[in-house]
Design goal:
Blueprint: H1 2-5, H2 8-11, H3 29-41, E1 47-52, E2 55-67, H4 78-87, E3 97-107, E4 112-115, H5 129-135, E5 145-147, H6 153-156, E6 172-176, H7 177-184, H8 193-208, E7 212-215, E8 220-222, E9 225-229, E10 238-244, E11 247-253, H9 259-264, H10 276-293, E12 296-299, E13 307-313, E14 316-321
Parallel strand pairs: 4-5, 5-6, 6-7, 11-12
Antiparallel strand pairs: 1-2, 2-3, 3-4, 8-9, 9-10, 10-11, 12-13, 13-14
Bound molecules: zinc ion (ZN).
Length: 324
């Protein structure tokens, strides 16, 4: 099965071989159009490799979600939100706003770290993390650390298979202590109970095997990689600060969900934020820091590959994707 998913033609969809890191790919031009067509029908894999100082980095596209526009701006006038969505062409043919699910990978020399785990094998919306890692030459057993940002299923479900057996058997699983505290304090009749139980089931093997590492704000995940409290999306949601040889990147994860909406209107509520006012404060602080200090950002749901800059514009910021 893997072999099919990893066929070279599947890798080519929409991207040059260079951007995908395919070595020595001199493909006969004649076959490209045909292969591109086949790729459109196949399960396409996409990843983007880049350097952050001495770190070998990558972003893996795991899946694509369609978010109803009502997710955004419930605290703003309806017409204003509708006008904004129209102005920035955010709605797709179905009227939804596309949210990518993409996973940051860091190879530091000592560690191979993945930041969150995507939708998980068998999800009807796709889950390309494992086959894409394999296409990059990374087997699940090579992953030394999995850094989970928060308890939502689109971040934690890929930690285990459908039977809750670990998919990254050798990895330490970093999970935010404040998020775990929130989970433990959630009553079984609370609206969040189902979500909490789902996350608990995913984490259980790591707790039982003592592979779990609970972390707090500013804790080191690996050399050059630290947790940053970025609460609001969930009570214990975390971002990550990566630095190597003076180059910095902040993985803001879900502190912002949609790049245009979040940067231009950080004050607009997002339905997925469990503490919306805290989330507004958090993303405003992150964008302020990023623009003041010229730090590159990575957004888990931003347009692939999710890398770019917050540049001050008007009362908010513009999202300027990194060239690649
Ligand atoms: Zn998410």
């Amino acid at each position: 099965m893997l072999k099919n998913q990893l066929s070279r033609r599947a890798l080519l969809k929409g991207f040059g071989a260079g951007a995908l890191g395919l070595a020595g790919g001199s493909l006969p031009m004649l076959t490209l159009a045909q292969e591109a067509q086949e790729a459109a029908a196949a399960e396409a894999l996409a990843y983007y490799r880049f350097k952050l100082g001495a770190f070998d980095m990558a972003v893996i596209s795991d899946a694509t979600l369609g978010l109803p526009p009502t997710v955004f701006g419930s605290n703003a006038p309806e017409e204003e939100v509708a006008e904004f969505i129209d102005q920035y062409k955010l709605a797709n043919a179905e009227g939804n706003i596309t949210g990518i699910v993409q996973i940051l990978v860091a190879r530091t020399g000592d560690d191979t770290i993945i930041f969150d785990t995507g939708l998980g094998l068998g999800n009807p919306n796709g889950s390309r993390l494992i086959p894409t890692l394999a296409a990059m030459g990374i087997q699940p057993g090579d992953v030394t650390k999995v850094a989970i940002s928060h308890l939502h299923g689109d971040h934690i479900n890929g930690l285990t298979g459908p039977d809750n057996a670990p998919l990254f058997p050798n990895a330490a699983v970093y999970f935010p202590q404040p998020e775990y505290d929130f989970m433990q304090g959630t009553a079984s009749d609370s609206p969040a109970a189902g979500m909490v139980q789902g996350a608990q089931a995913k984490l259980q093997y790591a707790i039982d095997s003592e592979q779990i590492m609970f972390y707090n704000d500013d804790d080191e995940i690996a050399s050059g990689i630290r947790a940053m409290a970025a609460h609001g999306h969930t009570p214990g949601h975390m971002a990550f600060h990566l630095e190597s040889e003076g180059q910095r990147l902040v993985n803001i994860v879900d502190a912002a969900v949609q790049s245009q909406v979040a940067l231009r209107h950080p004050e607009w509520y997002v339905a997925f934020d469990s503490l919306p006012d805290v989330a507004v404060e958090t993303r405003t602080a992150l964008f302020t820091m990023a623009s003041d200090e010229d730090v590159r950002l990575f957004g888990y749901h931003f347009p692939f590959p999710g890398l770019g800059y917050a540049v001050r514009e008007g009362e908010g910021w513009a999202w300027v994707p990194s060239a690649f």
